[in-house]
């Protein structure tokens, strides 16, 4: 310490030690303040970040993440019932119970009765969304039409057929099988039009003679005729019983270009419906009952005498 005392004249050994200790203490205190200050800034920053995350992932405001994802980010364990309750409150029951998409199936219970495709089985939807014309009714329709045309022309000699609310296309396909040279099918359900109707036309080899319109029947009847369009020789109307107002539908049909002076119109309707007597220039020439199903056929005046 002598050397140190010599370097600092007028300073005693005791005061030098005290001074040195004071500087060390001062340094330590300064270091503590510095560390604490940094720690406080980190805590403050972390709190701000946590608050920011809560703003983003708040369960009441944040539709970006599900409740389960938010809980996973938080890293906590939450009872399953509480998670389900939070899901219900945020999204409703649909978030907990996933919406089931019904699987649509087909079966082959229909068949073509007569003609070129006689005996071929047709696809149909295996649910209540499509109600094809019963085979006994379909057979009666073509027998009646042939009888009314007797002496004028044969059904097998050609003609155009319009199948409204076609569904499986069984009526229009029967007409093509029996000799009609063209058919138009109107079906509003794209899935049925693709997976049932067009599949049946391909299977019976009538695709080239057919035109499929994927649209509502009402819209089809209200559209103006295109170039070269003319009235159809035969029209079948087989709508879902509960889905239409028959008098309104027949009124639309009466004013549409699809109807001509010599057109025959076949309408299937339930027994509780009172259907109108006339259809534009046509008159009702026949009305029959098959269980709950009623069959009305409209045609030109000359057909009533057959």
UniProtKB/TrEMBL annotation:
UniProt signal peptide: none
Superkingdom of this protein's organism: Eukaryota
Entry's Gene Ontology molecular function annotations: methyltransferase activity
InterPro entries per UniProt: RNA_MeTrfase_RsmD (IPR004398), SAM-dependent_MTases_sf (IPR029063)
The keyword Methyltransferase belongs to this UniProt entry's keyword annotation: yes
Keyword terms: Methyltransferase, Transferase
Keyword Methyltransferase applies: yes
Gene Ontology biological process terms from the UniProt entry: rRNA methylation
Any Pfam family the entry gives: Cons_hypoth95
PANTHER family: METHYLTRANSFERASE
Name of the featured protein: Uncharacterized protein
Organism: Ceratopteris richardii (Triangle waterfern)
């Amino acid at each position: 310490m002598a050397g140190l005392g010599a370097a600092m004249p007028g300073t005693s050994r005791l005061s030098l030690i005290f001074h040195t200790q004071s500087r060390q203490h001062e340094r330590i205190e300064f270091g503590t303040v510095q560390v604490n200050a940094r720690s406080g800034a980190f805590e403050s920053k972390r709190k701000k970040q946590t608050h920011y995350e809560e703003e983003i992932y708040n369960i009441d405001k944040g539709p970006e993440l599900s409740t389960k994802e938010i809980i996973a980010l938080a890293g906590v364990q939450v009872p399953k019932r509480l998670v389900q309750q939070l899901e219900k409150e945020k999204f409703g029951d649909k978030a907990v119970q996933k919406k089931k998409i019904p699987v649509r199936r087909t079966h082959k219970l229909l068949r073509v009765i007569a003609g070129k495709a006689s005996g071929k089985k047709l696809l149909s939807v295996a649910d209540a969304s499509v109600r094809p014309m019963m085979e006994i009714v379909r057979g009666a329709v073509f027998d009646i039409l042939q009888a009314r045309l007797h002496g004028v022309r044969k059904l097998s000699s050609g003609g155009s057929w319009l199948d409204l609310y076609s569904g499986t296309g069984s009526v229009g396909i029967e007409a093509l099988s029996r000799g009609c040279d063209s058919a138009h099918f109107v079906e509003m359900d794209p899935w049925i039009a693709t997976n049932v109707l067009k599949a049946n036309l391909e299977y019976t080899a009538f695709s080239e003679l057919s035109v499929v319109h994927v649209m509502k029947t009402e819209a089809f009847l209200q559209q103006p005729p295109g170039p070269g369009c003319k009235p159809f020789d035969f029209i079948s109307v087989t709508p879902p019983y509960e889905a239409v107002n028959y008098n309104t539908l027949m009124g639309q049909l009466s004013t549409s270009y699809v109807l001509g002076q010599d057109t025959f119109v076949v309408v299937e309707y339930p027994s509780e419906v009172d259907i109108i007597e006339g259809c534009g220039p046509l008159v009702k020439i026949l009305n029959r009952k098959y269980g709950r199903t009623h069959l009305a056929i409209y045609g030109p005046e000359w057909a009533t005498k057959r």
